[in-house]
Amino acid sequence: MTKTTRIERSDAEWRALLDPEAYRVGVKDGTERAFTPGNFQDEKRAGIYHCKGCGTPLWSSEHKFESGTGWPSYWQPIDAAAIGTSTDFKMIYPRTECHCATCGLHQGHVFRDGPPPTGERWCINGAVLDFRPSE
């Protein structure tokens, strides 16, 4: 992935760009409810999942797996440079939060209980994704 300039938006710009749920999840670091209809957890078509905040391709159907958690899960991002991480202390234990490296929109969390080859489970909120099926 080519290094991109970080996109900065005001709160008003985020509110105008995103629907209320995507704003709550992506800008305010929320979490959508598990098994939310339309969150792409059950999406089986081949394609790419893009950041709803800036259009950056982040996740591929080739890396998607059924985790049983109620959220779309991937064993790796399309490109490690497309995702940023930080430590989240909002729960009893620290977690690794992930966000779009281009615009900062909160994506979800990464856990170390995923399948091979990485052993990672990138648990992502569908509310912050735009799915573009392959042609």
CATH class: Mainly Beta
Supply the CATH superfamily name: Peptide methionine sulfoxide reductase
As a percent range, the share of helical residues equals 10-25%
Give the percentage of residues in beta strands: 25-35%
Span between N and C termini? 22 Å
Structure notes:
With 135 residues, this protein is mainly beta. The chain contains two helices and nine strands, in the order H-H-E-E-E-E-E-E-E-E-E. The strands form two sheets. Strands 3-4-8-7-6-5 form a six-stranded antiparallel β-sheet, with no helix packed on it. Strands 2-1-9 form a three-stranded antiparallel β-sheet, with no helix packed on it. It starts with 10 loop residues before the first helix and ends with a strand.
Describe the secondary structure blueprint for this structure.
Elements: H1 11-17, H2 20-26, E1 47-51, E2 57-60, E3 64-65, E4 73-74, E5 83-88, E6 95-100, E7 106-111, E8 121-124, E9 129-133
List keywords for this structure.
globular; six-stranded antiparallel β-sheet; mainly beta; 135 residues; Metal Binding Protein, Guanine Nucleotide Exchange Factor, Chain A; three-stranded antiparallel β-sheet
Q: Quick recap of the structure?
A:
It is built from two helices and nine strands.
